[in-house]
Amino acid sequence: MPAETSTNPIDTLMEQASQSLARGSYLLCSNMCINALRMARSRNDFARMARIVLPLQEAQRYLRQDALDLGPPKLVTSGDDLGSDLRALCYLFAPTLVGADARQFRSAANDAGIGVFVLTREPRTAKGLWPIVGVGHCVVRVRVEPPKNAVKADSLLGDTIEGEIDPSWFASAGEALGDQAIIDAHAAGEPEDPPAWVVDDFLDRFDACPEHEKFLQALAAACRVAANEPPPTQIRRRGLLDDPYSF
After folding, report:
1. Do 169 and 90 meet the contact criterion of CB atoms below 8 Å apart?
2. What is the total count of domains within the chain?
3. Which residue segment(s) compose the domain that 118 sits in?
4. If you ran DSSP here, which 8-state letter would residue 94 be given?
5. Distance CA 15, CA 192 (A)
6. What CA–CA distance (Å, rounded) separates 188 from 202?
7. Taking Cα atoms as reference points, which of 84, 49, 67, 35 lies closest to residue 222?
């Protein structure tokens, strides 16, 4: 093993992540990969970033599938709906809760060692669609058809679901959100932007859809492009795209 590989703290962390993945500690592996990803970005080490995404994608795939397999998604409209029995399930946050609440919940659950798959729906639109939102540094929002057992209420906030949330609908909504995140990341900059900035545009949206495989694959592809270019010397600037605390 080359000396550089054995002494690089990112490689040491990723060796531990690989061991966690091998023994089925998927959340621990994911957390280590995310930390390594941030370390590599701070060093402009885009080649390592691309490699880190592979075990991260695998860990997130297991976490996502486990959550979908453990039972129907749980509807959460207030903190009281969570109860005391926190499990590695799918959770649909709905008004009056917002995307920032869901992000905070996922972070707290992960800190407690529980992998959860969380989406947020906003009030239905005039066309009867449900906006699904994910919050990272930037907000991602996509409009989808409600589940077939959704009941339209007089109040925009009051749509209900008769019976259980269909896991396949939940998975499909998550896919749509991640697909939109890819579109948003590519649309965030200008054609002449350095490839490193494209990587950052993806990282800005990572927390909005960490389970999405195609998003992670697109991030890895952006990293591979950036690895072949010198890092930029100018400061990247992006405008505020959305307010994660609003509907």
Report:
1. no
2. 1
3. 71-133+145-163
4. -
5. 36
6. 9
7. 49
